[in-house]
């Protein structure tokens, strides 16, 4: 059996969920460090995508005091079929949020921080200005911390939205394509595949020193060759870092899981991606955009240095 031969039955049926395979079972538990991380987030009135997106790695990451902060509130203006974040009309942008993010970073002693956000189609700049303010606050309060951002697509916003963020010079700019183009109408209906791809291409054109990163969820019904075509598209846009993880259905209202992709298949995808020239590839059932982000940033730097040498 080769790496891409399905070794598990369809993940779900019309009558309900199947049990997750062994490779997706995570012990949740808690630790004093995780509880302290939660208290810090609540005290500073910060949201985290770890909680809002029901990330399976929350316990592990929070125990290491790693939390992905979600700025611009906890209500999204989009309604993607895969996402657990609330949808509706968001509240006003919190002017104290950038300082609170910087305080949390300093208090937790983070060497690398990941900042993401909900989509804010209601704002003229899509929230780009708040990203800039957060980056500036982090540079002032925690100058030795490297900064990774995971932004929305800023669709129908001025080109300057991305330009402003790039000018603030985050160390890593991430924007996830999420799935293959064929599935966009049902999985990511408010977005456009080629717009997202061009956003990442624009980042590289504006500042080639910023690492670019993007990811896909597998198990939504995509075909192997479609995944490889997305890899080619990403490399054409000079994306440095690819992440691949298993889609997990947050609630019965969300898109069903078509298949639980076995670890061997993730390994096969990763081998092909490396051969296509990505500086770094993270591929496993539990891989998420910010999972092990600090260690991955060090690996990105080392990979770039080795390639230049």
What are the salient characteristics of this protein?
single chain, 309 residues, alpha/beta, TIM Barrel, eight-stranded mixed beta sheet, two-stranded antiparallel sheet, 11 helices
**β-sheet strand percentage:** 5-15%
Span between N and C termini?
38 Å
* Rounded mean pLDDT score: 89
SSE order in H/E notation? EEHEHHEEEHEHEHEHHEHEHEH
Number of helices: 11
Strand order of the largest sheet: 3-4-7-8-9-10-11-12
Shape type: globular
Structural class: alpha/beta
How many structural domains does the protein architecture include? 1
CATH-defined architecture: Alpha-Beta Barrel
What is the highest CATH level, the class? Alpha Beta
CATH superfamily: Aldolase class I
- Uncertain segments are 1-7
CATH topology call: TIM Barrel
User: What share of the residues lie within helices?
Assistant: 25-40%
* Major sheet description: 8 strands, mixed
Radius of gyration: 19 Å
Strand count? 12
Cofactor: [4Fe-4S] cluster
Pathway: Protein modification; protein lipoylation via endogenous pathway; protein N(6)-(lipoyl)lysine from octanoyl-[acyl-carrier-protein]: step 2/2
Binding site for [4Fe-4S] cluster 2: 76, 80, 83
GO molecular function, one term: metal ion binding
């Amino acid at each position: 059996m080769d790496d891409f031969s399905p070794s598990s039955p369809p993940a779900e049926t019309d009558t309900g969920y199947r049990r997750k395979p062994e490779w997706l079972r995570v012990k949740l538990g808690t630790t004093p460090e995780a509880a302290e991380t939660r208290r810090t987030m609540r005290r500073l009135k910060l949201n985290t995508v770890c909680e809002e997106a029901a990330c399976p790695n929350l316990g592990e990451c929070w125990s290491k005091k790693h939390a992905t902060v979600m700025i611009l509130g906890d209500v999204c203006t989009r309604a993607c079929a895969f996402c657990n974040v609330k949808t509706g009309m968001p509240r006003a942008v919190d002017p104290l949020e950038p300082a609170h993010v910087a305080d949390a970073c300093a208090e937790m002693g983070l060497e690398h921080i990941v900042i993401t956000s909900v989509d804010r189609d209601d704002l003229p700049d899509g929230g780009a200005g708040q990203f800039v303010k957060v980056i500036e606050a982090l540079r002032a309060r925690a100058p030795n911390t490297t900064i990774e951002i995971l932004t929305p697509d800023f669709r129908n916003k001025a080109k300057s939205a991305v330009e402003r963020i790039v000018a603030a010079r985050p160390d890593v700019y991430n924007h996830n394509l999420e799935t293959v183009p064929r599935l966009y109408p049902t999985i990511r209906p408010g977005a456009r595949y080629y717009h997202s791809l061009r956003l990442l291409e624009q980042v590289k054109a504006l500042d080639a020193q910023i690492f670019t990163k993007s990811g896909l969820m597998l198990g939504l019904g995509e075909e192997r060759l479609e995944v490889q075509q997305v890899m080619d598209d990403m490399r054409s846009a000079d994306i440095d870092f690819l992440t691949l993880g298993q889609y997990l259905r947050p609630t019965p209202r969300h898109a069903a899981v078509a298949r639980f992709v076995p670890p061997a298949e993730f390994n096969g995808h990763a081998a092909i991606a490396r051969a296509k020239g990505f500086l770094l590839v993270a591929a496993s059932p539990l891989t998420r955009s910010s999972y092990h982000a600090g260690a991955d940033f060090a690996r990105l730097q080392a990979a770039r240095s080795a390639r230049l040498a």
